Amino acid sequence: MILGVLSTSPLPGSTMKPLNRQQSTMPAGPTPPTPPPMQRDDTDDGLRLLHRHHQATLQHLERRAEVRFVIDPGTGELVFPVEQGFAAAPELVLHMPDEVQSTFELAVVPKVIERPEADGTVDRWTAYHGQAGALPTQRGGMKWVRAQIDAGKRPRPGDAGEVYSASVLQQPNPLRATEFKLIKKFNGDRPLLASMCRGSTGVEVIDPLCVGIDSFGMDIRARFGILRLEFELEAATADQAEEWARRLASQVPKPHA
């Protein structure tokens, strides 16, 4: 395991720092250890954080690369194309949305997809990020990988931050069986979809395209990239997801916490 939720060893090159002992101001007595990062098993919170992101700065030791990814609805793994050197690494860190802002970090274990042409999640990546004639291929040193989540962290200034276990972050999409039906339904009403984008984020999106739906929100492909629309409540069924989604069209935009 790369990073156990109570581990004191840092990932190479990661900002996930080891625990340090603080100097005591008392004249005598043992030095108390710094409390470990708070382990979070709040699935709602952890998955909401992860699903807000679709791109990251990938890091292995001193090497870095910008990547765009999708989440496999069947397994919860991340899928993306990378240079062969990253694909062969035993461990990677993703800084989301990039290394400068880094509001969320993941430690992952990559595994090369031997037959990407037969993998449905590669097609999903194409729907989210692909451009005709510009898709990554196995040639030229590029490899498609599945990244299994080992742990996640929400950095926080002034303390150790919040750590999430793999069991919290890597979960199948409960709506995966009905996702395509919902996507098709919303894409059949583009004016409604545009109103949902405006109500949820305040952004005017020309020709929006829904590419993904999960229990916590929707992913909309726009000309500038992927726009995340979050539901106010978790949707346990397709009917609930449709209800929460339609409410977005009339709500007043508010920033994420």
Q: Topology, please?
A:
Layout (H helix, E strand, L loop, with lengths): L37 E3 L2 H9 L3 E6 L2 E6 L1 E2 L6 E6 H4 L4 E5 L7 E9 L7 H10 L12 E13 L7 E4 H4 L9 H9 L2 H12 L7 E6 L2 E6 L2 E6 L7 H10 L10
Parallel strand pairs: 1-9
Antiparallel strand pairs: 2-3, 2-6, 4-5, 5-8, 6-7, 7-8, 8-9, 10-11, 11-12
**Biggest sheet details:** 9 strands, mixed
- The average pLDDT value, as a whole number, equals 83
- CATH homologous superfamily name of the largest domain? Electron Transport, Fmn-binding Protein, Chain A
Structural class comes to alpha+beta
What is the number of strand segments? 12
Give Rg in angstroms.
20 Å
Describe this structure in words.
With 257 residues, the chain is α+β, with helices and mostly antiparallel strands. The protein folds into two domains: 38-169, Roll (Pnp Oxidase, Chain A); 179-249, PNP-oxidase-like (Split barrel-like), CATH 3.20.180.10. 23% of the residues lie in helices and 28% in strands. The protein has helices spanning 43-51, 84-87, 120-129, 166-169, 179-187, 190-201, 238-247; strands spanning 38-40, 55-60, 63-68, 70-71, 78-83, 92-96, 104-112, 142-154, 162-165, 209-214, 217-222, 225-230. The strands form two sheets. Strands 1, 2, 3, 4, 5, 6, 7, 8 and 9 form a nine-stranded mixed sheet that branches.
